[in-house]
Specification:
Helix content is about 25%, strand content about 30%. By secondary structure, it is α+β, with helices and mostly antiparallel strands. It has one domain: Structural Genomics Hypothetical 15.5 Kd Protein In mrcA-pckA Intergenic Region, Chain A. The longest helix is centred in the first third of the chain and has 12 residues.
């Protein structure tokens, strides 16, 4: 029995941050997880500097490293040949995606809708979203919230240093759908 390719409407949302930072995508159900990882990096504004994994239950789906001595002990699965549909198969099903094990950015990925595949469409595509993605290496959710607090206080002793580190300014509410779609692979 062959499975017909479908179109998945997926929401990706950063956990532990308010207001919610999220993106809504349309992707083919047969997209490889390695390609989906690249899509997440693009739409969330990450630069792919760090390790990542998909998590479903107690299983960790990631790229197997040649020198990983703990692979078998960690419940890890090499996702090299896996597709999104291997982890998400019904509406409202959720998995997690973790990026940067130091900052530990947790993303909740929700399969919102399963739609008929439209061969005329260009996929992947981001169809909606809200808020700017935090900058790389800002210290995870708590570091990001501290950064935003400092940026609201020009008299704060770390304000100038924070602006210098950011390369100027940072607008947490900024989101441009066209720019996000231009970043997609």
């Amino acid at each position: 029995m062959t499975m017909t390719k479908k179109l998945y409407q997926i929401q990706i949302a950063l956990k532990e941050i308010k207001p919610k930072i999220w993106r809504r995508l349309l992707v083919p159900s047969n997209m490889l997880l390695s390609d989906f990882h690249s899509v997440i990096q693009a739409v969330m504004g990450w630069s792919n500097y760090h390790l990542h994994q998909f998590v479903q239950g107690e299983t960790y789906y990631t790229v197997k490293m040649a020198d990983d001595d703990y692979w078998d002990e960690m419940g890890s699965v090499d996702y090299k040949k896996m597709k999104i549909s291997d982890l998400l198969s019904f509406e409202k099903e959720k998995i997690n995606y973790v990026y940067d094990f130091g900052d530990y950015w947790q993303h909740q990925i929700t399969l919102e809708k399963i739609l008929p595949f439209d061969a005329k469409g260009k996929y992947p595509v981001c169809v909606a979203g809200k808020m700017n993605c935090p900058p790389e290496d800002c210290g995870g959710a708590w570091g990001y919230m501290d950064m935003l607090e400092i940026l609201q206080q020009p008299e704060h002793e770390e304000y100038k240093g924070m602006l210098d580190w950011l390369g100027g300014s940072f607008d947490p509410a900024y989101f441009n759908l066209d720019e996000v779609n231009q970043m997609l692979p």
